[in-house]
Each structure stands twice: as C-alpha cells, then as structure tokens.
Design goal:
alpha/beta, binds 6-O-phosphono-beta-D-fructofuranose, Rossmann fold, 2 domains, 372 residues, seven-stranded mixed β-sheet
Length: 372
C-alpha cells in the first residue's frame, strides 16, 4: 500500500491547518505511505518547492498556529510569473508526475476548492479538506479554523463591553467572514452583542440607530454592534441585485465584463466600509462611537480543542479515502461523521447563513437587532 501523498495549504492561514497536516502525515506514515508538502500553496507546486514530511517534521505542530508549509492565494490558471499572469496548470501537472504522486491533498477554503477541481479536471487525483475561519465552504457542516476564530471574536466582544459600558459608547466591532455572516452572527450571539449585522441580512442605518436609542432610553447607555466585514445596507444590496440582473440579461460580453467589474468594486467597497457606519451611528444617536477591527487576530494563534479534533478527524478520514483510492472529493464534516463529497458539488458554491437558521431565530428571540 505504498503511496506518495502531496499536501499543500492555500488561501488565508487558519488555526488547525498544522493539526490536519499532522493527522494526514502520521496516519499515512503508519500505513507505509510517503508524504511531501509543497510550500506556499499552488505556487510551491508550480515552482517545485517541496519538503519531506516525516515523523520529525510532523512532531510538535498540533498546537501551532498558521501552516508549517506556508500559504498563498495564487491560482494555478492565473499565476503571476514575473511581470505576467499565466496559466501554469500544466507545469503543476508535470511536477505532480515528477514526484510520482498518487494523490494531492489541498487544504483550503472556497477558492482552493475551485483550484483543486481545475487540477482534478486535468486528471490529477485530488482530495481536499475544508479550511477557513469564514465557515462558508459548501457541503460541510463546519470548516476547520472557524471554532477558534469564533472563540477569539467572542472574547473580543466580551472585553469590548468594559470600555463600552464604562465610557457609555457605541463600539462597533468588525468581524471577518468575507461574504458570509457565520463568524459575526456566532460571536455576536455568544458575546451578547446588541446589534448584529451580516451580509445575508442587508440593514438600514435608521433601524440600527433606533435600536441603540431605545436601549439608551431604557438606561443602557452603551451598545455593542458586531458587524461582518461583508455586511451591506439595503440600498447597496438592491443596487448590486439590479446590476446582477442586468448581467444575467445581457448577451454582450463587454457589457457583462464591465458589470462584473462594477459589482466587484461595490463589494470591495463594502469590505472595510464599517467606518462609514460608525460615523453615521454617532451622527444619528449623538453617542460617542468607536470602531475596532479584529482583522488577522481572528486567524492567529493556537487552535481550539474543537478545531484540533476536527482537523485530526478530517485528516485521518482523508487517509482512509486515499487507501480506497477515492479521489475527486472533499472530506466533509456532516451530521457528526466525516464523508467524501464530490468536489464538483463544492467548488463554486458558497454556504451563506440561511435566513431561517436557528442562530438567526435565536438572535431575534433574545431581542438582538439584526438591522432589518
Ligand atoms: O477567508 C478568510 C479571510 O480571513 C476572510 O475572512 C477575509 O475576508 C480574508 O481572508 C482576508 O484575506 P487576506 O489574508 O488576503 O487579507
């Protein structure tokens, strides 16, 4: 059963990546397989930069944050090479063969799943693991890294209460999550935020301001607003929806491309647009308002126990699939167990917070303002 396994980590770093590399490596070595890691995501596969992952390399990394392999957001089909951007997929296929790999395991989020599928379509044996603090990978209940980030963001909200309460301020805390609200919603509920704004529920500033003023009139002269980095106002959401409709209706590739660029620009403008919300809340409530952006703090440091467990179980399940030569799949956490789901059903799909999700209902039931 001697097989050669390649591993790479791609996209943003996430707590639990090393725990997953360790689990795959240790389980594989015990089954007489050899494991190598490629440095810095798909770039390392293209540049043929690899390292052997033996028992020594895998030892002592369970609790270490980040990824021992390094990572990047480089895509196989659009790789910056010198001053050009090139399709380097075939070079990666050659390097896969050069190492006599039986399978390449790609650990990453939504972008990585798409890139991995591209390589699978080129004939490579691919297995992926779902990794992102955003928890937005389709077909899995949870992604590795999410629980740790949830804990960090919740603790941050706990700590921000001290200043909000003592200084009678509004504190807006921006939480990561890209276009999904899992992290802001989860941490907002767990940390007792008074307002939670997520991309899936476009908000109105007036409604948020009124909820804060209502609290103030009742004697609570502070408020915590947990806002997902991708949250948007109802006007912004309507505008984007209109552009998306126009794009769906046009047959002209140039118009379609320019609409796509405009939608991208508007979305980019939302990410980081939390400062505008803080300013408007201060104007509309007359309460001193401050912004805290948690940023990369949420991705750093040691993984939580739940993430170490998840990473270990996904990693060992991955090696079981390799033994069965079951490729072209992502190892997903589903209903308390770990299963293979076709990569084609994962790539290109995003798992957003459903509006009828129990977290949304519970937040509303305890009186949290969701901005709508
Ligand atoms: O996907 C994980 C994530 O941390 C998102 O929450 C965030 O939008 C993004 O990565 C930030 O990416 P970068 O590392 O490129 O700044």
């Amino acid at each position: 059963m001697s097989k050669q396994i390649g591993i790479l980590t791609a996209g943003g770093d996430s707590p639990g990546l090393n725990a997953a590399i360790r689990a795959i490596g240790k389980t594989a070595i015990r089954s007489n397989m050899q494991v190598i890691g490629f440095r810095d995501g798909f770039r390392g596969l293209m540049e043929n930069r690899s390292q052997r992952l033996d028992g020594r390399a895998l030892s002592g990394i369970l609790t270490v944050g980040g990824t021992i392999l390094g990572t990047s957001r480089d895509k196989p089909h659009r790789m910056p090479v010198g001053t050009r951007v090139m399709d380097m997929t075939d070079v990666m296929v050659d390097n896969y063969a050069r190492h006599y790999l039986d399978v390449l395991v790609c650990l990453g989020g939504g972008g990585t799943q798409k890139n991995a599928l591209r390589l699978a379509e080129k004939g490579l044996n691919i297995i992926t693991l779902p990794k992102t603090i955003d928890n937005d990978v389709a077909m899995t209940d949870v992604t590795l890294g999410f629980d740790t980030a949830l804990g960090i963001a919740t603790e941050a909200i706990d700590r921000l209460h001290s200043t909000a309460h003592s200084h009678h301020r509004i504190i807006v805390v921006e939480v990561m999550g890209h276009r999904a609200g899992w992290l802001a919603l989860g941490a907002g509920i767990a940390g007792g935020a008074d307002v939670i704004l997520v991309p899936e529920i476009p908000y109105q500033v007036d409604i948020v301001a009124e909820a804060i003023l209502r609290r103030s009139r009742r004697g609570s002269r502070f408020s915590i607003v947990a806002v997902a980095e991708g949250a948007c106002t109802q006007e912004q959401a309507t505008h984007i929806q209109e552009l998306e409709q126009q794009r769906a209706q046009t047959d002209d590739p140039e118009i379609s491309a320019s609409l796509k660029a405009e939608i991208k620009r508007l979305r980019a403008n939302m990410i980081g647009g939390t400062l505008r919300l803080v300013q408007r809340l201060e104007e509309q409530t007359g309460l001193e308002s401050r912004l805290t952006i948690l940023g990369y703090l949420q991705r750093g440091g040691i993984p939580s126990a739940a993430d170490r467990l998840l990473s270990t179980c996904l990693g060992t399940a991955c090696v079981e699939l390799i033994k069965k030569e079951h490729y072209g799949v992502m190892v997903a956490a589903r209903g308390g167990s770990y299963e293979a789901v076709p990569l084609s059903q994962v790539a290109g799909n995003v798992k957003l917070v459903p509006l009828d999700h129990p977290w949304v209902q519970s937040a509303g039931a305890v009186g949290t303002c969701l901005g709508n």
